Amino acid sequence: MGARQEQYKVLLVDDEPIILRSLKVAIPWEELGLTIAGEARNGEAALRLIEESSPQIVISDIRMPVIDGIALMKELLPKNPKLLFIFISGYGEFEYARDALRLGAFDYLLKPIDHDELTDMLTRARAKLDRQKENEQLMHSVQMLSILARERMFAEFTLGNPRPLQHLKWLENSELEREYFMAVVRLDDYASLTAKWSAEEKHLWLFAIRNILEEWSLENGALSIFPFYNGEWVLLFPGNLSTVRKELGERLVADIKRYSKLHCSVGISRSTQGIDQLSTVYPLAAKALYRRFYSGEAGVFIEEETPEAGEREVQYPKELELSLIESIRTLNLERMLLLFDEMACFIEAQSLTKELAQRVIIELVVVLYRQFEQMGLQAEWPLEELMGKLQGLGTLSAVINVLKQDFRDWMLEGSRQAARDDGRSVVDKVKRYIEDNYHKDLSIEEVAEVADLSISHFCTLFKQVSGYTFLEFVTHCRMEKAKYILQNSSVKVYQVAPLVGYQDPKYFTQVFKKATGKTPTEYREEMLRLAGEG
Q1: Distance, CA of 461 to CA of 26 (rounded, Å)
Q2: Which residues carry this modification: 4-aspartylphosphate (predicted)?
Q3: For the chain, which end, N or C, has fewer CB atoms within 10 Å of the first or last residue's CB respectively?
């Protein structure tokens, strides 16, 4: 059998020691890809061994003391229907064997045991286990694909973009045709958390939170759960739970804290119907969640469907929000500053009270800050620090000036980061070119042209990003390749020089000794000596 095949475990059960011994030595277990997990003299001992070793195949005498083979199978198959039983029976026990087949045994053979026949049975049993495993893997893949596609479909509808997913209509069901509401769960202080986590830690934490949410959803009647933004998940609940929205949210916040020690807040929308309404209720739940940033406390925030008595309903500047997002996305500082002035004009034109003006400004600020997060340009200052500044200001002009200053600083830092990232990509491209062409007579003019930069700009950027000058990096590449050739071949030293870009072997030896402290010959001899000692 192939070395990569899974080894299945077999348990031998017979009250005759001679039969157990013959089975162990006469069957080519390793060749069949099988291992003997244990042996038992009766059904009672077999029960204990099966619980401990979890075999896939049981070869058992049909008649044994204490618990016979059929009783053993009847005990085990309801718990593990995939377990394969092969029974050994005497000529006078044919009726027992027929009953065993009727009750689910894989096969049986008569005594005296024909080992070739048993080998054929085990080959067929192994093939059946392989098919079962393949089917399980296929079903798991289909289920995972269905889950991922369904999540993607919900996310696209939530973004208001259903068209690309018309081919996924087969995933839809009627659960959202009935009344439902949405809860948006967001980790508090997500930017500061991710600044402390490594990439692997971030992956593990988000995976853990998702597992907690999935288990919680099953226990609390949620219709679906899917991740949306980083650090944010969307849960959908049937409308009949709308009267306990607050309680659901509070339980969710408490359980996340209990099982992960992390804090989160939840924004909950009104009820609606239809999958196409996901893009309508998401902004409502997210808007409710914005109140967490000016309430100063984590918790559960329910969408306010109607203004409270005496409270004025304010038109939200959606077009202004979209324009500000676009200015950040394109790192257009001048445009962003002008749009903040337009925000001031909007608030003045509506004659908003300080409280209402703060509400509009804070909602806008949170949306804009999240745009920085999505672009991977998180500011050094936490959002809460900016909120604290705004709360302490007494005039609209002062608020706008603080917004301009902080967002200006963030955008400039974002531009510098983008420039650094772009510089890294250029230098990485040049390093790959040098690594591919180190054996040629490379000139700085040629490589600067690859970078599409002037020679002076290229030299400055390459040193700044890589830590090497151009010549140092070329030499480094050539020396590393020379060391590899000297260690792994018997090529003459004078023949190594042109292989790594040096036409003069003497000059190559000088450069090599300067880089390593040894001549090429000395280096090779030392490597051979170390290999011999190892």
Answers
A1: 72
A2: 61
A3: C
pLDDT score, position 152: 65
d(CA 173, CA 183): 20
CATH class name, domain 8-134 = alpha beta
Would you say the C-alpha torsion 105, 107, 112, 118 has a positive or negative sign? negative
What whole-number percentage of the chain has pLDDT above 90? 19
For 314-362, the DSSP string reads: ----HHHHHHHHHHHHTT-HHHHHHHHHHHHHHHHHTT--HHHHHHHHH
Q: Which long-range contacts (CB under 8 A, 24 or more apart) does 370-374 make?
A: 370/229, 371/325, 371/328, 371/329, 372/328, 372/410, 372/414, 373/190, 373/191, 373/229, 373/230, 374/229, 374/230
| CATH architecture for the domain at 174-302 | 2-Layer Sandwich (3.30)
C-alpha torsion 420→336→303→207, nearest 10 = -10
Per-residue pLDDT reduced to its tens digit, 410-448: 788 766 665 555 677 788 888 988 988 888 888 888 888
Dump pLDDT digits (tens) for 364-393: 888 888 777 666 665 555 666 777 777 666
- Min mean pLDDT across 164-178, 215-229, 393-407 is at 164-178
| Residue 260 in this model has a pLDDT that exceeds 50 | yes
- Does residue 255 carry a pLDDT above 50? yes
The per-residue DSSP string of 269-297 comes to EEEE-SGGGHHHHHHHHHHHHHHHHHH-S
Longest dimension (CA), the chain: 102
* Average pLDDT of the chain, as a whole number: 81
Q: Is the domain covering 423-533 a CATH 1.10.3720.10 domain? A: no
Give the 3-state secondary structure of residue 38: strand
How far is 272 from 182, CA to CA, in rounded Å?
A: 9
501/475 Cα distance (integer angstroms): 9
* 213-243 confidence digits (pLDDT tens): 989 998 999 888 888 777 788 999 999 998 9
How far apart are alpha carbons 376 and 331 in whole angstroms?
13
Reading across the β-sheet that carries 224-227, which strands appear in turn? Answer: 224-227, 232-238, 180-187, 264-272, 300-302
